[in-house]
Each structure stands twice: as structure tokens, then as C-alpha cells.
Automatic annotation (TrEMBL):
The chain crosses the membrane at residues 177-197, 204-226, 232-250, 277-296, 302-330, 364-387, 519-538, 545-566, 586-609, 630-653, 673-694. This is MMPL family transporter. It holds the Pfam family MMPL. It is a multi-pass membrane protein. It comes from Streptacidiphilus jeojiensis. Keywords: Cell membrane, Membrane, Transmembrane, Transmembrane helix. Belongs to the resistance-nodulation-cell division (RND) (TC 2.A.6) family. MmpL subfamily. It is found in: Cell membrane. Residues 191-328 form the SSD domain.
Length: 742
């Protein structure tokens, strides 16, 4: 790291130009090539995947997205069958049918759409067929459909639109929420540094890294199946960790300058300590994210790639762009007050007092922290995973209003139909198809089941099944299970056909079941990899074991808060993202990977300072105190920044984004202010020197990975020792150690 730091210092203008050129090239390429995000929840080998394949082979016109235009006759005694309404809506639907990306429109005023008018004749809908999945339809084409349909609105006639394509086009941009988070982070940075110039550095780094990463992710979406949530996830993580990593390095650099080091040597010292920790922390976050590949699901693989690419760019910016910027600023990074203040290490009397409190009462504080985390985790026992529907969109959105109108006119399950795809041994077997429809109608929980027209000469037919309950409700999930395990086997035996449950709802149900069944395996993989990395870094079994326990506690408490906020509905309604509903199955998986990585960040930054002192003195008490006093302020400031960034996404108006915002903000708050501030140091005091124990045989086998520089300049070492003495307020009577466990 020292070589890289010196090179960036001496070639700072070249580093800035390289980053600028890379940003321009990547963003330009992404604008020219575009993106190809694809929300593919299908799982090879499942019923829904087989059903989808049969539908694509036999009904290619139905392979694209299907959205709806819904209208309601309001006021008076009129109906949607009134001649004026019929003429107005027929003209609008005809114009929509000729718009780009639209393959056809099925309205309620011809024979094919006779069932698309409610019993009271006050609500009707038309189906709009697109030529590709929702995520791949150009936004401009969908907006043209929306404008054309909404132009039909007038007094007494309400018109709304629903469906995946409309929802994607109507989603509010996340930039406003991100700006709120960045502004709040800037305030925290100013309070931490007391300098406007220094405050800008972490923000510049975060924005540059995220910009380059998102452009790269857009290009990668042509080669890897990345969902359209990937860029959002990348921005969420990149802004948080980018600002945090910069904060750690800048804080260490300023400490070196205040201790009397020249700017170049202060930069080298900062990169040899905090810079190494940033590299290791970024590696652990990346490993945790890539652990999602162990689930074998392409949608999650894509999210892992998007998030990991962002972290990689963030680390690259932290170890190259940031040193160049610090070099340009020189001693101005201290701010005017810092430059006027006498040289000497900064002290943290508040954290020194708290460290002494933890040392004196470790059992009591550890017990309080464990009870708090366990209490917050209680709601986790009732977690229910599933995909929420457009009934959870903001109440002002046209998709939510269309959803409510369809539920009002045609029943709550109308918004989530599923298909029984029937593969008969003979072509044109209408009798078998009707028998399957009859069996479906007799299944408890089914509101209606209709055999759709057969394609001449085809052995494949479709029975459209409408549940009697809302798509995201628990009874609907139970119904899908009954259709799979009871109705299908009985109907297959009676008709000699093969039946597959398909449709959007069935696909998401398969996705939920498969992911739920692999979560424990995923947790074991991520925790195991993290344990191995920490063992190599700190030459200890106690530190990684304690870290694993802390991270599992944090995950349990975080998911408990998430269940209370969104599944129980205590926060979802106030935030405008719908009422109570299940937790999306990919949320716990992705969030665990992220929060495990972020928790490892704080563990690394805290314990690496302890490790430095343990190597010097071999005194566990002194090492824990030193690490807590030296890292407490910067860890708390970093946590405050992350909380600001993550909490700002609660204002996005998008339910999955708000879930991530709440979960990650809560996870960081608990991790920094309960675990790393209270429970970790208390537990390390109780465990004692065994924290750093490693069997000699294992020590010989493991590769060497130093988080501290093997060699430092004499003046840097002296400055560091002086800083430790001042902040700890203790003597240096402990034995000198060459390394832990020696």
C-alpha cells in the first residue's frame, strides 16, 4: 500500500485524469449501448418454468407483458355500456393498439372481452399486449400508452392503468431520496471534520465510484441477467460504503498530519493502516455478496454482480482517487482551525470515559445488549415471505387505483390469476381441458376457473384460475399449494394429461419456496467465508467466532424490525408503500449479504486498532480499550453517515427500496451503537487473552495477511505510539509482542 500511496501522491494529476477519462468512457458507452435489465424470477426445473416454456412454444403472442386499462362510470346512474362511453373508449383503445411495442388490445365491447365488464356494469377493463417483458419495453412507449389512455378521462369517467410495464414507467426516480441522504451525510461529515473542503472529499469519492459502477453494471446487463433493481441496490451500497471508506482514511490521514508528519508520510501511514483495512473490508463485503451465487438463482446472481461491482469501484476509488485528492489538498485537509491548533494527536475524552465504563461493567452491559437484540428479533418468528402486488403501490399512483378498481369490480383475486397449463396426449382435447377446469372450480379458495380457447392442432391448453383472495395474502399461497399437491394429481389421473401451474403468481411462489429452502445454506456459506477471512487477518479463532455471533444477532434484530415495519404494517402505510404484506423473498437474502459485509467493516476497523495494540503489548485489556477509544469516534460518525444515506431511501415510494432502507439503517444503527460500542468490547473483556488464541499448527498452515504495515517509518511509529499513549491515558508496561499468540 505504501508504494501505491506514494505513486498516487506524486502523480496526483494523472490519477485524477485517469478517473475522469474512465468515468466519461463508461458513461458514454452505457448511453450508447443502453441497458438490458431483466427481472427473471423463473427457476429451471420448477412447474412454473415448464408452464412458461409451454406457453412460449404454443402461444408466442402471449410471451410479452400484459397490462390493463380500467375505467369506471362515476356519479349518476350511467354505466360503461352507455353509447358515449363505448364510443370514447373504443376510439382510445384503437389508438393504443397502433402504438409502438403494443401487439394488440382486447376490449370489453366485443365477443372476446364480454366478461371484462363488472356485474353492475360500472367498471370495465381492456388488456394491452406488449411484444416483450415489462422490464424490456422502452419507457417512452409505455408513457405513450399511459398518455393516450388518460386522455379519455372526463367528468363521470375515471380511467386508470395497471400492470408491470406501467408500474416501471411510473416509478418515481430515486435521485431525490439519494440527494436527501447525501445532504444529511454532508452535515455529519462537516460536524466530524469541521471543514467544508474536507467534507466534500468523501462525497466526491462516493459519487465518482457509484457513477462508474452503475455505468459498468448497465453494460454488464447485456451479458448477465441483472434485474432492474440492481442499479438501485448498487447505488444504495456504493453511497454508504464509499463515504464510509473515505471517512476512515481521511480521519487517519488527518491524525498523522496533526502528529507532525509531512503530507506524503501521513498519507502513506493512513494507507498502510486504514487503507489496508478498507481493502480487507471491501473484500469481505464482495465475498458476502458473491455468496448469493450459492443459491443458484439467476435473479440473485445478477443482484450480486451489480452490488459487488459497485463495492469494487468504491474500494478502487478509496485507494487511488482519494489519495490523489488528499495530496492536492495537503495540510488544508485539516481546515483552518486544525491548521491553527498546536500539533499533536487528537484525543477523544468521551470515548475514553465510555471505554472505562465498559471495562468496569462488562457483564451487566453485555446482558443489557443481548436482551435488547433478542427483544427486537421476536417478530422474526412470524416472518412470511412472498411478493407484494400493486396493492402496495402508493395510493396516489394509477397502478394502485387500477388495482383497487379491479378488486372492487371483479373480486380481490382478479389481480393475481394463475394458469393451469394442460399438456394433453392428443391435440384439440377440449374434453380434458374442461375436466381440468371443473376440477379447479371445485378446489376450495378458487373464485373462478375458465378454459381458454384451444389453438387448432395443439396439445396444450390453458385454464385461467382466479383465486378468491388477494395475490399477496396467505390464503392465496395456501391455494397454490393445494392446486399443486391435490388438484393437479387428481386431474392428471382422471384425464391422462400433464398439468403445470404457471403464471406470474405461480412463478413468484416457486421463487419464494426455493429461496426460503436455501436461506440457511446461504447463511452458513457467508458466515463460514467471513470466519475464514477474519481468521487469516487476525490470526485468531476468538475474534472471528465473536464476529459471527454478533452478525447473526444483528441480522435477527434487523429482520425483526423489518417484519414489524412492513409485514405488520406499522411503517408501510405512513411511508405510502401500502399496507401490511409479506417480505419479498430476495430482501432477507440480499440484506443479509450486505449487512454481514457492513458488519465486517466495523469489526475490521474496530478490531484492527485493537490488534495493533495487542501486537505491541500483549495486554488484552489495553488492546480493547485502545481500539474502542481510537476507533469509537470514527465508527460512530461512519455509522451516522450510513444511517442517513440508507434512511433516505424510506422516502422512495417503492416498497422493496423502502424495505432495504429501513433494514440497512436499522442494521447499521444496532451494529455501531449496540454491538461494536457495547457488546463486542464487553465480550472481549470477558473472554480475555483467549480472543487472540490460534493453534500453532493452524497458524503455520494459514496464509499471512497483515492489516497493518509490516514496516513504518520511524517517525510514523513514534507518532502512532504517542497517539496511543494520549488516547488511552495509560502506561506502556505490558510486554512487547511480535504477534498474537506468540
Amino acid at each position: 500500500m505504501s508504494t501505491l500511496a506514494r505513486w498516487c501522491h506524486r502523480h496526483r494529476l494523472a490519477v485524477l485524469l485517469i478517473w475522469l477519462a474512465a468515468l466519461v468512457a463508461l458513461m458514454g458507452a452505457s448511453q450508447v449501448v443502453g441497458s438490458a435489465y431483466n427481472n427473471d424470477y423463473s427457476l429451471p426445473g420448477t412447474q412454473s418454468a415448464r408452464a412458461t416454456a409451454l406457453l412460449q412454444q404454443n402461444f408466442p403472442a402471449q410471451a410479452g407483458d400484459t397490462d390493463t386499462v380500467v375505467w369506471q362510470r362515476t356519479g349518476g346512474t350511467g354505466t360503461v355500456r352507455d353509447p358515449a362511453v363505448v364510443a370514447r373508449m373504443d376510439a382510445v383503445l384503437d389508438r393504443i393498439a397502433h402504438l409502438p411495442s403494443v401487439t394488440g388490445v382486447t376490449g370489453p365491447y366485443d365477443a372476446r372481452g364480454a366478461a371484462q365488464i363488472s356485474r353492475d356494469s360500472r367498471i370495465a377493463y381492456a388488456q394491452i399486449g406488449f411484444d416483450r417483458p415489462a422490464a424490456q419495453i422502452p419507457k417512452a412507449d409505455v408513457l405513450a400508452v399511459i398518455r393516450t389512455a388518460q386522455a379519455a378521462r372526463q367528468d363521470g369517467l375515471r380511467v386508470e392503468l395497471g400492470g408491470g410495464a406501467v408500474q416501471n414507467a411510473q416509478q418515481s426516480p430515486l435521485s431525490n431520496a439519494a440527494l436527501v441522504g447525501v445532504a444529511a451525510a454532508a452535515v455529519v461529515l462537516f460536524l466530524a471534520f469541521g471543514s467544508l473542503l474536507t467534507m466534500v472529499l468523501p462525497i466526491v469519492l462516493g459519487v465518482a465510484a457509484v457513477g462508474a459502477a452503475l455505468a459498468t453494471v448497465a453494460l454488464l446487463s447485456h451479458a448477465v441477467a441483472i434485474g432492474d433493481f440492481g442499479p438501485t441496490l448498487g447505488a444504495l451500497i456504493g453511497l454508504g460504503v464509499g463515504i464510509d471508506y473515505a471517512l476512515f482514511i481521511v480521519t487517519r490521514h488527518r491524525s498523522g498530519l496533526r502528529s507532525g508528519l509531512a503530507p506524503e508520510q501521513a498519507l502513506v501511514t493512513a494507507m498502510n493502516t486504514s487503507g489496508r483495512a478498507v481493502l480487507f473490508a471491501g473484500a469481505t463485503v464482495t465475498v458476502a455478496l458473491l455468496g448469493m451465487f450459492s443459491l443458484g438463482q439467476s435473479f440473485l446472481d445478477g443482484l450480486a454482480v451489480a452490488a459487488a461491482v459497485t463495492v469494487v469501484f468504491t474500494v478502487l476509488a478509496a485507494v487511488t482517487l482519494l489519495p490523489a485528492l488528499l495530496s492536492l489538498l495537503g495540510r488544508r485537509v485539516l481546515g483552518r482551525r486544525g491548521r491553527r491548533t498546536a500539533a499533536g494527536p487528537e484525543t477523544n475524552p468521551g470515548w475514553a470515559r465510555w471505554a472505562r465504563v465498559v471495562e468496569r461493567r462488562p457483564r451487566a452491559l453485555a446482558l443489557v445488549a443481548v436482551v435488547l437484540m433478542a427483544a427486537l428479533a421476536i417478530p422474526l418468528g412470524s416472518i412470511r415471505m412472498g411478493i407484494t402486488d400493486q396493492g402496495n403501490d402508493p395510493t396516489s399512483s394509477t397502478t394502485r387505483q387500477a388495482y383497487d378498481l379491479l378488486s372492487q369490480g371483479f373480486g380481490p383475486g382478479f389481480n393475481g390469476p394463475v394458469q393451469l397449463v394442460v399438456d394433453a396426449p392428443r391435440p384439440d382435447d377440449r374434453a380434458a381441458l374442461d375436466a381440468v377446469a371443473a376440477a379447479a372450480r371445485s378446489t376450495p379458495g378458487v373464485a373462478s376457473a375458465t378454459a381458454l380457447p384451444l389453438r387448432p392442432g395443439s396439445t396444450v391448453g390453458v385454464v385461467q384460475v382466479v383465486p378468491g383472495t388477494a395475490p399477496q395474502s396467505a390464503p392465496t399461497a395456501d391455494l397454490l399449494h393445494r392446486l399443486r399437491t391435490v388438484t393437479e394429481p387428481q386431474a392428471e389421473a382422471a384425464t391422462g394429461t400433464r398439468i403445470y401451474l404457471g403464471g406470474y403468481g405461480a412463478t413468484l411462489d416457486d421463487f419464494t419456496r426455493v429461496i426460503s429452502g436455501k436461506i440457511l445454506w446461504f447463511v452458513a456459506v457467508v458466515v463460514g467465508l467471513g470466519f475464514l477471512l477474519l481468521t487469516v487477518a487476525f490470526r485468531s479463532l476468538g475474534v472471528p467466532a465473536l464476529s459471527a455471533v454478533m452478525n447473526l444477532l444483528a441480522a435477527g434484530a434487523t429482520f425483526g424490525i423489518l417484519v414489524a415495519g412492513f409485514q405488520w404494517g406499522h411503517l408501510s402505510e405512513p411511508l405510502g408503500v401500502g399496507g401490511a404484506g409479506p417480505i419479498e423473498p430476495f430482501i432477507p437474502v440480499v440484506m443479509f449479504a450486505i449487512l454481514y459485509g457492513l458488519s465486517m467493516d466495523y469489526q475490521v476497523f474496530l478490531v484492527s486498532r485493537m490488534h495493533e495494540e495487542w501486537i505491541r503489548t500483549g495486554d488484552n485489556r489495553r488492546a480493547v480499550n485502545t481500539g474502542q477509544r481510537a476507533a469509537g469516534r470514527v465508527v460512530s460518525a461512519a455509522a451516522a453517515i450510513m444511517i442517513c444515506v440508507f434512511a433516505s431511501f424510506l422516502l422512495s415510494g417503492q416498497r422493496p427500496v423502502a424495505e432495504f432502507g429501513l433494514g440497512l439503517a436499522a442494521a447499521v444503527a444496532l451494529d455501531a451503537f449496540v454491538l461494536r460500542t457495547v457488546l463486542v468490547p464487553a465480550a472481549m473483556h470477558l473472554i480475555g487473552p483467549a480472543n487472540w488464541w490460534l493453534p500453532r499448527r493452524l497458524d503455520r498452515i494459514l496464509p499471512r495477511l497483515a492489516l497493518e504495515a509490516a514496516e513504518q517509518a520511524p517517525e510514523a511509529s513514534a507518532a502512532e505510539r504517542e497517539s496511543v499513549d494520549v488516547t488511552t491515558g495509560g502506561d506502556r508496561t505490558g510486554p512487547v509482542r511480535s504477534g498474537p499468540g506468540s
